[in-house]
């Protein structure tokens, strides 16, 4: 499987809640960083646990995947029944068919209000 296929499979398996299959795609010593919340997930078991223990009521829609060799970027939308809609831009490094590193930027849609100084220059989405 090429690098973009690994990331596509990752999101498919997370959506399916197939946690053992997720673990198969992630290196034992993976490091995934979440700069927005200043957290670092170290290790395959912790990565799977963080994802599997998240409160239910969510789904994942992959918006795009772009790859250049071993470097892959994905953008996903994650609506949650209780918490609203999240978006994530994720930057992955894939080696030998497994994710070895990631940096994800998670936020809620509309979490950062538009400042007044640019209101006349932009349109709401």
UniProtKB/TrEMBL annotation:
<dbReference type="Pfam" id="PF12680">
    <property type="entry name" value="SnoaL_2"/>
</dbReference>
<dbReference type="InterPro" id="IPR032710">
    <property type="entry name" value="NTF2-like_dom_sf"/>
</dbReference>
<feature type="domain" description="SnoaL-like">
    <location>
        <begin position="7"/>
        <end position="101"/>
    </location>
</feature>
<dbReference type="InterPro" id="IPR037401">
    <property type="entry name" value="SnoaL-like"/>
</dbReference>
<protein>
    <recommendedName>
        <fullName>SnoaL-like domain-containing protein</fullName>
    </recommendedName>
</protein>
